[in-house]
Amino acid sequence: ETGVTQTPRHLVMGMTNKKSLKCEQHLGHNAMYWYKQSAKKPLELMFVYNFKEQTENNSVPSRFSPECPNSSHLFLHLHTLQPEDSALYLCASSLIWTSERDNEQFFGPGTRLTVL
Amino acid sequence: LAKTTQPISMDSYEGQEVNITCSHNNIATNDYITWYQQFPSQGPRFIIQGYKTKVTNEVASLFIPADRKSSTLSLPRVSLSDTAVYYCLVAPRGFQKLVFGTGTRLLVSP
Fold first, then answer.
1. What is the pLDDT of residues B8-43, one digit of tens each?
2. How do residues A48-94 score in pLDDT, each as one tens digit?
3. Which of B98, B99, B105 to mutate to probe the A interface, most A CBs <10 Å?
4. Which of A6, A100, B81, B109 has CB 3.0 to 4.6 Å from A108, enough for a Cys bridge?
């Protein structure tokens, strides 16, 4: 239990569906992240939010739309996805601008997404 | 960011000490070395971080030579539950855009 929860844990959707992934952190952190991990590929950073503001979009297609209503919640809205978007989507959080272990990100268990 | 190179895979047996070495020849003065562990279908978990010499915690030790061009993660007396992928990352303190390479897949057998 890392203090970062993600729902749902598994999701199957068609290419015309719209769905959302939810992430919540109970650690009092001020930064949140979305990562994508495809089969046999390294983790890829998608988005970074600091104090609810998006600070990084790593050239992610617009069919992925993030939302961060507050420092504890992060969503990833999905629409018209492609089969190649099937992957494990991981949320993480961290406490930035502190003195110790600044590079420590706490990851959730992920959502296993399958696009048919 | 400094490029890191680590073995693709390693095999060990329960009770043995495992040392995973990471090369980072282009490490910058303000870079820190961080190791993460990832089990299948889970997110990575921070293990240890260091800048120079030796760092030890309840899980592992991290050895960093004076030139800092490499580092070694040492796992004492591994168990089956240590089977995972281990990632070496090099980045300045506070850097958020972490780059996870392919990591080292450690398989611990009985």
1. 999 999 999 999 999 999 999 999 999 999 998 899
2. 999 999 999 999 999 999 999 999 999 999 999 999 999 999 999 99
3. B98
4. A6
Residue in chain A lying closest to B38 (CA): A107
CB environment B36-47: b (16+ within 10 A), e (fewer): bbbeeebbbbbb
CB A89 within 8 A of CB A36: yes
Looking up tokens 């895979």 gives B9
d(CA B98, CA B91): 7
Q: What is the model's pLDDT at position A98? A: 67
Could A56 and B43 be called an inter-chain contact, meaning their C-beta atoms sit closer than 8 Å? no
H or E, element range at A94: strand A87-94
Per this entry, what is the length of chain A?
116
Which chain B residues are Cβ-neighbours of A33 within 8 angstroms? 96
Token pair for B48: 């240890």
Residue showing tokens 């199957």: A12
Chain A's closest residue to B93, CA to CA, is: A102
